[in-house]
Amino acid sequence: MAGHGTPSTPLAPAENGPRSIGIAAASWHAQIMDSLMDGARRAARDAGIDDIVEIRVPGSFEVPIAAQSLARATDVVVGLGVVIRGETPHFEHIASAATSGLAQVALEESTPVGNGVLTVNTQEQAIARAGGEGASEDAGYAAAEAAIRTYRAI
Ligand code: DLZ
């Protein structure tokens, strides 16, 4: 399954593609995170990237600092996390810190950074977007694919 809303041409190795990818991943909602990480690794493999560096941090709030560290060592980066509104008292703060932090890292480090931090209302919505069995979207794949395609484009 390709990522939701991604270009129709399947991801494949390319001469001008990145050689390495960093995956910055939160630890909350472990099972859903496993699906997101599987998707990001699958996108890397489809693009012919063997060099995959992973950093695991406690929560989505910490994903941008891990992404920054990876951006200094790898060609592209993807940030992964799951923030569920109903279960997270400071949902808006964590979600916006993760999203704007990843955008900031991309611009400051001149490195494509895919945003695979899911910000959803319920656990069911997160599962549906995380790319596992029966999911309608493959957000980890899509975020990694976006970073890879951006690297090729710029
Ligand atoms: C504290 C917290 C809460 C309540 N919920 C989530 C969540 O749903 N997803 C997530 O990735 N992280 C959560 N966190 C942890 C914060 O991201 C962060 O790790 C802590 O606030 C410590 O800085």
From TrEMBL:
**Pathway linked to the protein:** Cofactor biosynthesis; riboflavin biosynthesis; riboflavin from 2-hydroxy-3-oxobutyl phosphate and 5-amino-6-(D-ribitylamino)uracil: step 1/2
Q: Which reaction does it catalyse?
A: (2S)-2-hydroxy-3-oxobutyl phosphate + 5-amino-6-(D-ribitylamino)uracil = 6,7-dimethyl-8-(1-D-ribityl)lumazine + phosphate + 2 H2O + H(+)
Report residues binding (2S)-2-hydroxy-3-oxobutyl phosphate. E87, T88, R129
Please give the superkingdom of this protein's source: Bacteria
Choose any GO biological process term that the UniProt entry carries and state it: riboflavin biosynthetic process
The UniProt record lists the EC number as: 2.5.1.78
Q: Which family does it belong to?
A: Belongs to the DMRL synthase family.
| NCBIfam families to which the protein is assigned, alphabetical | lumazine-synth
Task: Report the protein name in the record.
Answer: 6,7-dimethyl-8-ribityllumazine synthase
Q: What is the lineage of its organism?
A: Bacteria, Bacillati, Actinomycetota, Actinomycetes, Micrococcales
